[in-house]
């Protein structure tokens, strides 16, 4: 991704530069981004602000009928104007929690985001201590603000807020609590969370009767004198919409002339100056349905235009410097997506959406095909950027086009994925606005189900490809002397190995930097072979060539315990039967992130291992009489292969009368290996025994198995006194070399009533 800016103190020339080449100055003035401090829960339970005569009890976690607080676990970059960008650790006030995409607000910005990118916030805003703002300066009195999220008072010293209310702000605190009153409703002064309110400039004036309010979805810097600059989250007063692509307006609350800005950088609000108009329950469902259908048509048209733009701005110029093979690796089936989107758009103008999508659903395989190769295309793009100077120059030239404004091709390669995941959301809205008795309802419902299934396929395909890339990277880049540790192999108990998380932690005492790699069956601590310049920005990427060395033997999740009870808010402990490691994160949020991720992985391991073991339970085992006809003693004496000496093996013994095999772990060292007795319900059964060599990081290796007819043993016993000693060759073995043999001793005692 690229940003636009200028070198401070040198000149006024603006230009584009890679985002990854810079780091934001933490000492520069910033907006208040949180209503809480990590120490807020340690405050005294009765604290009096310096300018108040009253004693304030501690407020509880804000409760609201309109939403809940969540914390971002991962960064999410908005793809469409309706998306809400998230940064790790950012607090989001979530107002809609349905499906895989939720709706919320951050610092005045509203939009939708993936539900699995956040977790519920656990702490509460700090209590007011002194009447100062976040920077420590005395707050200016009589500031006005607009409520952007509802809050219901839970204590006498608090006031309730409703979206759209204007409040008079008296005081603010470093912990995020503000004091004030709601204008025009009641004179009561009370406390409320500061980030539920957006301050209004002192120069603010009501917007005109023909004006509308819009929220800036992205930063925009004016290119000409008649254009308006703004930041994501700014509120803009739109005064003119005569052109579809460029509107006129000003920053809300500021005076001056109206300036031009791109319409696709903002999202219009549905209400007036300082309120979000609630939906009228008596409004016609038909009208709402038509609005959603219009949204589907318009967004499809924009998607088709974007695809065409990419072909004209990127694909055609790059075709002059790339081979056909490289071009196909980058753009995959882009031309087919253009044709499909055009057909969908034209069809939507003629037919109901449900009917059209049900008929065309097979054509949407083009999305699956593209999304399966999307990650490989982006990695190939990065490879060409590093190794092909001619390509790099041509790519930079493409980015100078006014249609893309410095955005790289990698961003546009994400558009098909963004589009296919939007279809179910739009159809979900159509279903909500369509009466169940409507003739189009069934087709809409069927199309919604088909699109959800398609998205699930896309997600699975992408997850599998990304997982394969990470496992191959692990195999290439992690140095280890551990035998049989093959990252690309299956796990011992869970089937395919999956890469889950990576990141940086530190040894608690020595502060040694460690890179954690979490898989679905094990956790690995490694050290980087080279110094990491920017630890805060470090992230494992399959396209990068970072070399790591294993620091400790992998910690198998089956036996792993996580302890987060340390008095240090950033320290946690990992331990199994052999090892204890104390680790330290940079922040409490990072600590809890790792604690939660590891605990979840451990729980998932236990659950999936149990499910896999349950598969051994026979659904249709043979049913015999309850009476016992004979008692059989079995003794596995030894195995013939010397290379199994002192190795741990699993012996599974089975009979048709069992609901599941008897499984025991033994060490090939003592004689006998194993002995036990069985009550036989019938003599007409075959005894089966299998032997497997235990592997830690991959599936157990089959040494072999044998099958013994019990009636044959009975006939031998009739002519032979004492134990029956048999030397049995094991079949279906997976070990190289000579087949293994096992010596087994049988004793059968038949009941006299037989």
UniProtKB/TrEMBL annotation:
It comes from the Eukaryota. The keyword Cytoplasm applies. Residues 288-461 form the DH domain. One of its GO terms (molecular function) is guanyl-nucleotide exchange factor activity. Residues 28-63 are annotated as: Disordered. InterPro entries: DBL_dom_sf, DH_dom, Endocytic_GEF_Adapter, PH-like_dom_sf, PH_domain, SH3-like_dom_sf, SH3_domain. Its main location: cytoplasm. Keywords: Cytoplasm, SH3 domain. GO terms for biological process: positive regulation of Rho protein signal transduction; vesicle-mediated transport. SMART domains: PH, RhoGEF, SH3. Residues 498-603 form the PH domain. This is Uncharacterized protein.
């Amino acid at each position: 991704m690229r940003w636009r800016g200028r070198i401070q103190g040198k000149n006024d020339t603006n230009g584009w530069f890679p985002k990854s080449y810079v780091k934001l100055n933490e000492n520069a003035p910033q907006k208040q981004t949180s209503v809480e401090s990590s120490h807020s829960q340690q405050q005294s339970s009765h604290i009096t602000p310096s300018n108040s005569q009253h004693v304030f009890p501690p407020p509880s976690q804000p409760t609201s009928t309109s939403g809940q607080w969540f914390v971002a676990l991962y960064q999410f970059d908005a793809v469409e104007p309706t998306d809400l960008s998230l940064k790790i650790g950012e607090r989001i006030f979530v107002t809609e929690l349905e499906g895989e995409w939720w709706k919320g607000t951050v610092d005045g910005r509203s939009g939708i985001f993936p539900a699995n990118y956040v977790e519920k916030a656990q702490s509460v805003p700090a209590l007011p201590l002194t009447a100062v703002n976040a920077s420590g300066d005395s707050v200016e009195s009589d500031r006005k603000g607009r409520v952007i999220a509802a809050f219901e008072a839970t204590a006498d010293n608090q006031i309730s807020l409703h979206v759209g209310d204007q409040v008079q702000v008296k005081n603010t605190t470093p912990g995020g609590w503000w004091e004030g009153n709601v204008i025009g409703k009641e004179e009561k002064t009370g406390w409320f969370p500061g980030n539920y309110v957006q301050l209004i400039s002192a120069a603010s004036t009501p917007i005109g009767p023909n004006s509308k309010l819009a929220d800036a979805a992205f930063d925009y810097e004016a290119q000409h004198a008649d254009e308006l600059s703004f930041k994501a989250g700014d509120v803009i007063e739109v005064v003119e919409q005569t052109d579809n692509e460029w509107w006129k307006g000003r920053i809300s609350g500021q005076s001056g002339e109206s300036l031009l800005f791109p319409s696709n950088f903002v999202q219009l609000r549905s209400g007036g100056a300082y309120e979000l108009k609630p939906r009228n329950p008596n409004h016609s469902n038909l009208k709402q349905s038509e609005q959603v259908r219009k949204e589907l048509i318009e967004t499809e048209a924009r998607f088709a235009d974007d695809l065409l733009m990419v072909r004209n701005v990127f694909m055609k110029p790059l075709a002059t410097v790339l081979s056909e093979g490289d071009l196909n690796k980058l753009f995959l089936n882009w031309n087919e997506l253009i044709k499909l989107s055009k057909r969908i758009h034209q069809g939507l103008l003629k037919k109901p959406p449900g009917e059209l999508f049900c008929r065309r659903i097979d054509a949407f395989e083009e999305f699956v095909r593209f999304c399966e190769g999307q990650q490989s295309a982006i990695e190939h793009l990065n490879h060409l950027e590093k190794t092909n100077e001619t390509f790099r120059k041509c790519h930079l030239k493409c980015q100078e086009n006014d249609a893309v404004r410095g955005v790289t091709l990698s961003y546009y390669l994400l558009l098909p994925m963004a589009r296919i995941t939007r279809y179910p959301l739009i159809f979900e809205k159509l279903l909500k606005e369509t009466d169940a008795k409507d003739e189009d309802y069934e087709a809409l419902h069927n199309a919604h189900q088909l699109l959800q299934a398609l998205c699930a396929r896309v997600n699975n395909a992408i997850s599998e490809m990304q997982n394969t890339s990470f496992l191959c990277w692990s195999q290439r880049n992690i140095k280890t002397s551990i035998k049989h540790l093959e990252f690309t192999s299956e796990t011992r108990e869970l089937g395919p190995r999956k890469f889950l998380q990576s990141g940086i932690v530190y040894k608690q005492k020595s502060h040694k930097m460690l890179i954690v790699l979490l898989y679905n069956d094990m956790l690995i601590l490694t050290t980087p072979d080279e110094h990491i310049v920017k630890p805060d920005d470090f992230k494992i990427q399959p396209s990068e060539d970072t070399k790591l060395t294993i620091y400790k033997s992998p910690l198998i999740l089956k036996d792993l315990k996580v302890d987060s009870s340390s008095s240090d808010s950033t320290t946690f402990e990992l331990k199994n039967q052999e090892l204890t490691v104390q680790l330290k994160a940079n922040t409490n949020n990072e600590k809890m992130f790792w604690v939660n991720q590891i605990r979840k992985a451990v729980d998932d391991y236990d659950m999936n291992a149990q499910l896999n073991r349950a598969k051994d339970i026979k659904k249709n085992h043979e049913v015999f009489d309850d009476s016992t006809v004979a008692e059989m003693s079995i003794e596995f004496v030894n195995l013939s292969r010397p290379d199994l000496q002192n190795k741990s093996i699993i012996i599974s013994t089975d009979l048709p009368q069992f609901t599941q095999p008897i499984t025991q772990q033994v060490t090939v060292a003592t004689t006998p290996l194993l002995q036990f007795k069985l009550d036989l319900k019938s003599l007409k059964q075959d005894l089966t025994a299998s032997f497997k060599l235990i592997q830690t990081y991959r599936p157990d290796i089959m040494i072999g198995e044998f099958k013994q007819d019990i009636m044959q043993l009975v006939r031998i016993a009739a002519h032979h006194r004492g134990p029956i000693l048999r030397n049995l060759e094991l079949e279906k073995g997976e070990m190289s070399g000579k087949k293994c043999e096992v010596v087994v001793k049988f004793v059968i005692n038949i009941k006299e009533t037989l």
